[in-house]
Write a structure and sequence with these properties.
mainly alpha; 2 domains; 16 helices; 3 strands; DNA-binding; DNA recombination; Integrase_recombinase_N; Tyrosine_recombinase_XerCD; Tyrosine recombinase XerC
């Protein structure tokens, strides 16, 4: 998502009712996915529940979803403004059966990815309704069935891999690894850090939805940060984009003989959550540490042993 797109979305939100409706109707009639994306961004920015606090990551995800849905509608002859009552379900079925197209993955789209695409398509229709272009809601009764296999099983936390890969990381990559695996940061949160966010034994983290939390730093994380001084006068600790950080981590895993074990940065965050739960046995404290809004989310980040309550039930 570019700055130009954001500016255009702000401009669109300032149109009067008639001009906004005309723009939306024209874009939908011509399957103009760029304009429909900007109208959706405008709606998200000024009329959605989070408004201007909507995260850039959410806007980027919804942009991909809007473009995907509009292109599918054009290919299949579905009218964006007047979809059939079963078209929402048809698009869901398309998502559930098409192959994944991103980051070297194979097989069908995951249930979570399909749900994200449907959420973006729903946002498009809320935006078109906000613009006065249509009252259609083809996804009102369309749902993506959840994956029956828990995420903690499909993508379990790293265990011994963290200590094995660290000797193959340079100082800055080691700091990033430990920020995710020991401090529990999302990789996007870690990459955005500056020296001003580090306060001795704690860290100020700006997470999803603009939420700010204070994270305690263990000795190993503090030492790793001290070994990776700021890169510039702005105090940036990293100058990598996500893809660049992923490339470096994949390379380090291969150097450690763990090429097949690489499961992304999220498995490092789950490593942190699992270890903290083993120490505290408290999902609430783990959730606060990880920056989760719901303990239900935290449960998906913690690998609990099958015999976790064996000793407790022994003398029932």
């Amino acid at each position: 998502m570019t700055l130009v797109q954001l500016r255009n979305a702000v401009t669109i939100s300032g149109l009067d009712d008639r001009a906004l409706r005309v723009r939306a109707v024209e874009a939908a009639s011509t399957y103009d996915d760029d304009m429909l994306t900007m109208i959706t961004h405008a709606y998200m920015t000024v009329a959605s529940r989070k408004g201007a606090r909507t995260s850039r990551r959410t806007l980027e995800a919804y942009a991909l979803a809007v473009k995907d849905y509009v292109r599918w509608a054009e290919r299949t002859g579905v009218s964006v403004l007047r979809p059939g009552r079963r078209d929402g379900g048809r698009y869901v079925a398309h998502l559930q059966t098409r192959p994944s197209q991103g980051r070297g993955r194979s097989g069908p789209l995951s249930a979570a990815t399909a749900a994200q695409y449907v959420a973006g398509a729903r946002a498009l229709y809320r935006a078109l309704s906000w613009a006065g272009a249509t009252d259609a809601h083809p996804f009102q009764d369309a749902h993506v069935a959840p994956d029956p296999t828990p995420g903690i099983v499909k993508n379990p936390p790293y265990l011994h891999e963290i200590d094995q890969v660290l000797p193959h990381c340079d100082a800055r990559l080691a700091a990033l690894t430990l920020l995710c695996a020991h401090a529990g940061l999302r990789v996007s949160e870690a990459l955005a850090l500056t020296a001003a966010d580090v306060h001795g034994a704690s860290l100020t983290v700006r997470g999803k939805g603009g939420r700010v939390r204070r994270v305690p730093l263990g000795r190993r994380v503090r030492d790793a940060l001290n070994a990776a001084p700021p890169l510039d006068a702005d105090g940036r600790l990293f100058d990598w984009k996500y893809a660049q950080a992923t490339y470096r981590m994949r390379k380090a895993f291969r150097a450690a003989g763990l090429g097949e074990a690489w499961r992304g940065f999220h498995a490092a965050r789950k490593h942190s959550g699992t270890r903290l739960y083993q120490a505290t046995r408290d999902f609430t404290r783990v959730g606060l540490f990880l920056g989760h809004a719901s303990v239900d989310t935290t449960r998906r980040y913690v690998a609990v042993q099958d015999n976790d309550v064996a000793s407790e039930v022994e003398f029932f």
